[in-house]
């Protein structure tokens, strides 16, 4: 599983800036999930083919919770992130020097027994002695950094990933098609696992909640090996720690990353929430093949069924590439069709797309609808040929000229044509544009 790195520190020391540098993004892939504080963010980071999950915990400081008790705030907001982290990055502000809050956070971190890397941020225009001051916090030599400019980030990444195996080496899951069962608590994930297995291998309770770990369950069906990844986990009624977040975002992200196909489970009795949409977005960004199961379909009447379908179109329209199944895991209804779609989505994710056919589909799409000009006087994009650039998800590379002028709407049009031609249902599809070089461009110089 991907290791987890938590960014800890006072407000405004540059944690979010560092988060964006590590994840190479401007915002978290998953944020504002139910049960989380609104300023906690989650994202994927990769450095030299080594991957990990980053959590930006928001600021920890005397004024954040209104009562001046930093210990209470740390317990309330950052407990889960620190609990699940394999390593902690403690960020301080070099310009401000050591503050009382820094010292209090340091004392808390020293009690955890987890590796801590100290980042002295905002070093621009600051004397080296200001960085050395932070030796007093007891975490060894600080990493000097100007996160807003990316200075010092690579040094931190080298140390962070020193003991992390490469993505190929880290794949230690049992052999078989790996299916991650993803969804909010109490949507029926464990019930679906048990139905697929044909036995009660996963304990199921009505009360929502999860343990901290996902469960990997190998099994065979019709001569094919599978591995079910149940993010619900096994738990006992009397051992639920209310201080620990019941829905583990980190374990969900790790399960998605480890899977070949994700089954996103929704509850027909509940509206589709932002949490559902955020998790769906992460599956999409991760490039995983996807099937959606709307569970407990047997418990809603005809009016509610129509309402659910409208809600799906309105809130999950970006998943139009995926098949939706209306199931009852407890009764076994729709499960065979669901698994069939899983196999089809997996096949689509690893489909081989011959260059001649890709180019023919591209040319036919252009003949049917040529790419528009971006503006008056701009050159019309010329799309010449296409080839496959990768699998899982399929990547189609299109070569031509003036490709920066291809609008998003036309990209979606091309995606639809490629999906139809190659039957790529159930998998995200990436289209990349690559400008053709001009062989005569050097002659006039």
Entry keywords:
alpha/beta, globular, 32% helix, 445 residues, six-stranded mixed beta sheet
Structure description:
This protein is of the alpha/beta class. Helix content is 32%, strand content 22%. The chain contains 13 helices and 16 strands. The chain has helices at 15-23, 70-84, 100-110, 128-132, 153-160, 167-170, 189-197, 249-258, 274-286, 302-315, 335-349, 355-368, 408-422; strands spanning 4-9, 30-31, 41-47, 50-56, 87-93, 116-121, 143-144, 177-183, 215-221, 224-230, 261-267, 289-295, 323-326, 382-390, 395-401, 430-435. Strands 2-3-4-1-5-6-7 form a seven-stranded mixed beta sheet, sandwiched between helices. Strands 9-10-8-11-12-13 form a six-stranded mixed beta sheet, with helices on both faces. A three-stranded mixed beta sheet has the order 14-15-16. Residues 27-39, 62-75, 205-212, 233-246 and 438-445 have low confidence and may be disordered.
List the helices and strands and how they pair.
Elements: E1 4-9, H1 15-23, E2 30-31, E3 41-47, E4 50-56, H2 70-84, E5 87-93, H3 100-110, E6 116-121, H4 128-132, E7 143-144, H5 153-160, H6 167-170, E8 177-183, H7 189-197, E9 215-221, E10 224-230, H8 249-258, E11 261-267, H9 274-286, E12 289-295, H10 302-315, E13 323-326, H11 335-349, H12 355-368, E14 382-390, E15 395-401, H13 408-422, E16 430-435
Parallel strand pairs: 1-4, 1-5, 5-6, 6-7, 8-10, 8-11, 11-12, 12-13, 15-16
Antiparallel strand pairs: 2-3, 3-4, 9-10, 14-15
């Amino acid at each position: 599983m991907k290791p987890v790195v938590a960014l800890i520190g006072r407000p405004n020391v540059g944690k979010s800036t560092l988060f964006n540098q590590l994840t190479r993004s401007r915002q978290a892939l998953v944020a504002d999930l139910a049960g989380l504080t609104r300023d906690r963010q989650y994202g994927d980071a990769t450095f030299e083919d080594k991957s990990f999950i980053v959590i930006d915990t928001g600021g920890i400081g005397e004024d954040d919770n209104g009562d001046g008790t930093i210990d209470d705030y740390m317990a309330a907001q950052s407990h889960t992130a620190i609990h699940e982290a394999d390593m902690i990055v403690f960020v301080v502000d070099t310009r401000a020097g050591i503050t009382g809050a820094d010292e209090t956070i340091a004392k808390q971190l020293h009690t955890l027994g987890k590796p801590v890397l100290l980042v002295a941020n905002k070093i621009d225009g600051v004397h080296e002695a200001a960085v050395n001051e932070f030796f007093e916090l007891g975490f060894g030599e600080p990493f000097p950094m100007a996160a807003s400019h990316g200075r010092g980030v690579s040094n931190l990444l080298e140390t962070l990933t020193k003991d992390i195996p490469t993505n190929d080496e880290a794949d230690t899951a049992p052999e078989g098609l790996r299916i991650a069962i993803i969804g909010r608590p109490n949507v029926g994930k464990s019930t679906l696992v048990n139905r697929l297995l044909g036995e009660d291998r996963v304990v199921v309770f009505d009360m929502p909640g999860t343990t901290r770990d996902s469960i990997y369950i190998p099994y065979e069906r019709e001569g094919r090996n599978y591995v079910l990844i149940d993010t619900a986990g096994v738990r006992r009624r009397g051992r639920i720690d209310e201080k620990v977040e019941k829905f583990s975002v980190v374990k969900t992200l790790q399960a998605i990353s480890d899977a070949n196909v994700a089954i996103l489970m929704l509850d027909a009795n509940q509206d589709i929430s932002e949490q559902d949409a955020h998790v769906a977005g992460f599956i999409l960004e991760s490039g995983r093949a996807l099937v959606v199961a709307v569970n407990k379909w047997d418990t809603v009447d005809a009016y509610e069924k129509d309402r659910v379908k409208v809600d799906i179109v309105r809130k999950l329209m970006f998943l139009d590439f995926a098949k939706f199944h209306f199931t009852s895991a407890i009764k076994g209804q729709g499960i065979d069709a669901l698994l069939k779609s899983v196999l089809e989505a997996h096949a689509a994710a690893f489909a081989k797309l011959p260059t001649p056919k890709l180019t023919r589909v591209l040319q036919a799409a252009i003949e049917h609808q040529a790419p528009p000009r971006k503006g008056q006087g701009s050159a019309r994009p010329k799309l010449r040929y296409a080839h496959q650039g990768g699998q899982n998800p399929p990547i189609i590379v299109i070569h031509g000229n003036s490709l920066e002028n291809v609008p998003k709407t036309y990209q979606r049009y091309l995606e639809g044509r490629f999906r139809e031609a190659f039957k790529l249902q159930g998998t995200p599809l990436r289209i990349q544009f690559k400008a053709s070089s001009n062989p005569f461009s050097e002659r006039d110089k």
